[in-house]
Task: structure prediction
Amino acid sequence: MELEVKKSDDVCVISLQGDLNIYSSPELVDELKGIFTSHAKIALDLAGVSELDTAGLQCLIAAKKEAAKTGKVLKLLNHSPAIIRFIDLLGLVGFFGDKIKIPAEDRKKYSLKYGIKKQNVLATQKAGGL
Result:
């Protein structure tokens, strides 16, 4: 994976190219550690991510949690199809909370569930569905 880092006074944008996986995620973690100390706003441009595995996903989840814990803003931008498939499959769209742009012709490929509301689960249970 290749990282391109662009820093300004208030925002740091990290563009990722290649696979975000068990072999490459430690590099992103190391980069983010330094950036979290120097910037309040961080953006990860994911357009170039060709493959994502669970280690890469753990890296993204940990980064979001660390940002929230330290009062930083971390945005995921330009989600690649590999990223969208993975977070859609695991129902993590709501967790990340970032807007995902999908061309109209590709929208039927994804469900993009933001989670099940509690009242929907209760209604299903009362109807004998669960």
Remarks:
- DSSP finds five helices and four strands in the chain.
